[in-house]
Amino acid sequence: MIELAQLQQLIAVSEQGTISAAAEELHLSQPALTRSLQRLEGELGVVLFDRKRNRAALNRVGEQAVARAKAVLGAVDDMAMELRLYAARLSTIAIGSCGPAPMWDLAAELAERNPEKTLSTELGDTESLLAGLKRGSYRLILTDRPIEQPGILCQKYTQERLYVALPPKHPLSARPSIRLAELGQESILAYRDMGIWQRIVQNNPQLHYLVQSDRGTLAELVQATDLPCFSSNLTATRFLGRSNRVTVMLEDEEASVTFFLCARENDRDLFEQLC
After folding, report:
1. Are β-strands 229-232 and 246-250 bridged in parallel, bridged antiparallel, or unpaired?
2. In angstroms, rounded to a whole number, what is the distance separating the alpha carbons of residues 245 and 222?
3. N- to C-terminal Cα distance for the chain?
4. Among 79, 122, 186, 211, which has the minimal tally of Cβ within 10 Å of its Cβ?
5. Which stretches within the chain are classed as H helix?
6. pLDDT per position as a tens digit, 190-245
7. Cα separation of 37 and 59, whole Å?
8. What's the pLDDT score for residue 47?
C-alpha cells in the first residue's frame, strides 16, 4: 500500500534534485530513502527513475508521479481542513449580526438552549454576513432587511428603537422625542462596536462621542456620571440599571431597525428553536 510519506519523499527528490540531497532534507539515510522509493515503484508498478551508475534521476513517468503526489497530498490537506471545520461547526454556533444588542439576546437564548455548545459572535454589515452564512462561517445571522434567496431561511426576529438617556434636569429631558442633532455639541457616552448604529454617529459628527470598548466600563460610567448616553428598548436594563436618567426617543429615521434572523436550510432545526 502506498504511504503518504513515500509521496512526500518523491516530492522532496524532485525539489532537491538528487536522492542524497532529499535524504539530508528529510533526515533519512540515503539507503533508507532509496529502499522506500523502490517500494513505491513496486506499489505503482512503474519505474520512476533513470538509474545510471551511482545517480538516479526522475524520468518522465516520475515527473508525472510528482505532479499527482502533490495533488494527492493537497487533497489530504483539504480533507483535514474540512473535517476540522466540520468538527468545529458541530461544537460551535457562530453568530453574525449587524447590531450588537440583538446579537447579545440571541447568544443568551442559544446558550440557554444549547449549553453544550461554544458560541462565537461577530459584528458585520448585512452583505458580508450573508456571504459568510453561505460559505458556512456563520450558522445564524441577524440582518437589517429580509433575505429572500434560495436555501436561506429568514424570519423577523426583533425591532430596536434607539433612545438617548438624559439626566432629569437636562433641558430636553421633558420632550417625548428629539432629533440627535438637537444635542448640539454635547458629550455623549457610546459603545465602540455599534454595528449598524454607527450610521447615526456618522450623521451627527458635531457631538463629542466618549467611546468605550468594554460594556462593563460603559455601564459604570453611566452610573457614575450625568453624561447623556445611547440606550434602546433592548439595552436599557443593561446600561441604565438604577441610574437617574430619562430616556427620550430619537426621531431620526436611522434610529429604528427591524432585525431578521437568517440561517441556511441545513440548519433548520437550529433556526426553528428561535422562531
Report:
1. unpaired
2. 9
3. 52
4. 79
5. 4-16, 19-26, 30-44, 60-91, 100-113, 126-135, 198-202, 215-224, 236-239, 268-273
6. 888 889 998 888 888 999 999 888 888 888 888 888 889 888 998 876 656 556 78
7. 13
8. 93
